[in-house]
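Quick one:
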Amino acid sequence: VFRIDTENRDRRIEMDQVATINTNRGDFKPQTDVNLSKTEVQEIQGWIDARMALLAQRQSGLVADTVEQLNQTAHWAQAKGTDDQVEAVTDALLLAMHDLRSILVRKRADRFSNKD
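Output:
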């Protein structure tokens, strides 16, 4: 996060870093020598909230795209891929699908066991 200063004698835009944002945790940390105003804190938190919502939306789109890609890959392997082409990607696909299946089954089992 930067504070922008345009009121200087050189008429240049100066940017002073005032905080660091961590979107993985959804928080921010001010620089040690900076005091943020209440308005600045609210603006930063608003930006974080909007950014995290956008990232969540993109992630949902990625999952939908992945499902579509898997369907297209299955069609390709069945109808268009030569034996050599399919063989070249089989191990990587099987390992990735095994990992994904294991996680999905475990998470579903956890959800069902938590309902009890």
